[in-house]
Amino acid sequence: MYRLHNITAWSKQLSLGVGNAEWNAEHLHLLTTEGRPKTAQEGRLTRQVESPEKSGDISSRLYNELNPSGSQPPRIYGLPKMHKPEIPLRPIVSCIRSQSYHLSKFITSLIFPLEGKTSTHMKNSKHFLEALQGVQVAEDELLVSFDISSLFTNVSINRSIQVIQRKLEQDNTLANRTTLSPNKVAELLEVCLRSTYFSYGGDFYKQREGAAMGSPVSASVANLYMEFFEDLALSQAPADYVPSIWKR
């Protein structure tokens, strides 16, 4: 019998050391599972990719690439944030060879072209500097920067899937990348986002919400969600509070 935990503030837990009894009592809810979580996750993912293979929406070759048979449980490790007090750890879930790794890469290839369609999008620092050329900051204005705390693990899975499916439905180039419908792509994306678990210290932990740091699809999911969130915030903000320039 293997133990499977549901965890929320797992970055804090990792900083303290996963397995801390006092923290566990407050934040972890112990569940029991029959057999290894890997087996259950592999079965769920296999059933999801069998359907489009049988209908001809994906080739047998692609099905074999996406089939998670023989996968390895994801493992968590921490990267120290040297620039912050007490040097907390950034939790990274190594998804290489995990059950959803190849599916995540495939879904990323379908949704990555949706990114950067907003007027606030900046490709890189050079692009940002070019956008600021000729901009004058008035005496009653401030130039400020913001940092999102734990972006990947704080994005809403349900809202992200809704946003991405809507963008796929409006994308007239999707058929050039796949014969899968926007609804099916969204279903497969949800499988990736809902199957985030990892092993640590002999136990298995399940991430309740957000995208995993380390999954190939997480960056695109986070970016697309932020584009939606920015557009919503800027469109609903009172006129006096809308920034004259907003770039990300």
Q: In this structure, how is the largest beta sheet organized?
A: 4 strands, mixed
Radius of gyration: 21 Å
Specify the oligomeric state. single chain
Shape: globular
What structural class results from the helix and strand content? alpha+beta
In total, the number of domains comes to 1
| Alpha-carbon distance between the two ends | 47 Å
Q: Report the mean per-residue pLDDT as an integer.
A: 82
Spatial order of strands in the largest sheet: 2-1-6-5
Count of DSSP helices? 10
Strand/helix succession: EHHEHHEEHHHHHEEH
Helical fraction equals 40-55%
pLDDT < 50 stretches: 1-19, 22-35
Strand content: 5-15%
Number of strands: 6
3D structure, described in words:
The structure is a single chain. By secondary structure, the protein is of the alpha+beta class. The protein has one domain. It is 44% helix and 13% strand. It contains ten helices and six strands, in the order E-H-H-E-H-H-E-E-H-H-H-H-H-E-E-H. The chain has a four-stranded mixed beta sheet with strand order 2-1-6-5. Strand 5 and strand 6 form a beta hairpin. Helix 3 packs antiparallel against helix 9 and helix 8 packs across helix 10. The protein is globular, with a radius of gyration of 21 Å. The protein starts with a strand and ends in a 12-residue tail after the last helix. The N terminus is likely disordered.
